[in-house]
Design a protein that fits this description.
The protein is of the alpha+beta class. The chain is 21% helix and 29% strand. It has 6 helices and 17 strands. The strands form 4 sheets. Strands 7, 9, 10, 11, 12, 13, 14 and 15 form an 8-stranded mixed sheet that branches. Strands 3, 4, 5, 6 and 8 form a 5-stranded antiparallel sheet that branches. Strands 1-2 form a two-stranded antiparallel sheet. A hairpin with a 2-residue loop joins β13 and β14.
């Protein structure tokens, strides 16, 4: 189970290397934090209880993530190299989860794997079948802060010849005891045995239009997940289920928007792309967490 460390305490410790009790500093002497952008952000003074928690020597999520990013062979044996890193708060506890982008830099696209801090170490986010989660890099991470819900929405865009274009899904991230878990809700695929060329054209604009067109019913495979089994449903039922959870004009926040910290590639001496991971150094990690903390302080 996660044990939350107060955000202001982490801010002070991360950037100043020490903690102060409220008795030692007046509000007029409130410290500020210099973020990577150079902007100064005010930070509250931690209470004595928060200071004691830090002084207990308990491993914080920042230390754990730093060690993980610097030292671990992440997703050992993965098929696409690592190109980028995200921080999300997927369960609204102000302790971030980590999204790692694996990308081919080609038409195959890529995928994300997710990790969380379990109170001691960094652990892969699993689905309800106990398997590590992988999601398409086209997936939206949609957060409803009022209802404290997070959905993973991948919409089919039907670019033939690209696996990313011929499937979609809707999943929900739930937390039990502060441990995030991904639950399947809906799944959509193109029936590969159908004659796609005679049905799909420019007259259909996006996934909702595909699902709403009766003439495409036989070309699509639509399913709902229930009691750990996939149940076949109609295209209209898929569309209705999706829009019940995520209205078309929804006010959800996509946690991926603008949050990609680091994206790059390794090249050899001839300028050719190397199929190797882009690793983060200490400065990149500090910038990643500095921006996450800054965003929390501004809320």
């Amino acid at each position: 189970m996660k044990r939350g460390i107060c955000l202001p305490c982490i801010v002070l410790c991360l950037f100043f290397g020490g903690c102060f009790t409220s008795a030692e500093m007046s509000s007029a002497e409130m410290p500020t934090v210099e973020m990577p952008s150079g902007e100064m952000v005010s930070a509250e003074v931690p209470s004595e209880e928060e200071t004691e928690l830090w002084d207990d020597g308990e491993m914080t999520y920042i230390k754990a993530y730093t060690q993980f990013l610097l030292d671990e062979d992440i997703d050992q044996g993965h098929d696409f190299p690592i190109r980028g890193y995200y921080l999300f708060d997927l369960n609204f506890d102000e302790i971030p989860e980590l999204g790692i982008l694996h990308d081919s830099w080609g038409s195959m696209g890529g995928y994300f794997t997710y990790y969380y801090f379990d109170g001691n170490e960094i652990t892969a986010v699993l689905n309800d079948r106990g398997e590590p989660v992988q999601v398409s890099n086209y997936t939206q991470v949609l957060a409803d802060h009022e209802q404290k819900k997070v959905y993973l929405l991948k919409e089919m865009y039907l670019l033939q010849g690209n696996d990313n274009g011929t499937y979609g899904y809707l999943r929900e991230i739930k937390s039990e005891g502060q441990v995030p878990c991904v639950y399947d809700l809906l799944n959509l695929e193109v029936d590969q045995e159908s004659d796609l060329s005679s049905h799909f054209g420019t007259q259909y604009d996006g996934e909702d239009a595909f699902l709403a067109a009766p003439e495409l019913e036989d070309c699509l495979i639509t399913q709902r997940y229930s009691e750990k089994e996939w149940i076949t449903i109609s295209s209209s039922e898929y569309l209705e289920g999706k829009r019940q959870l995520i209205p078309e004009g929804n006010s959800f926040v996509d946690l991926r928007e603008g949050d990609l910290h680091y994206l790059g590639a390794n090249y050899d001496e001839n300028g050719d792309l190397l199929y190797t991971d882009v690793k983060m150094g200490k400065e990149e990690i500090e910038e990643l967490f500095g921006r996450f903390i800054k965003n929390l302080l501004q809320k």
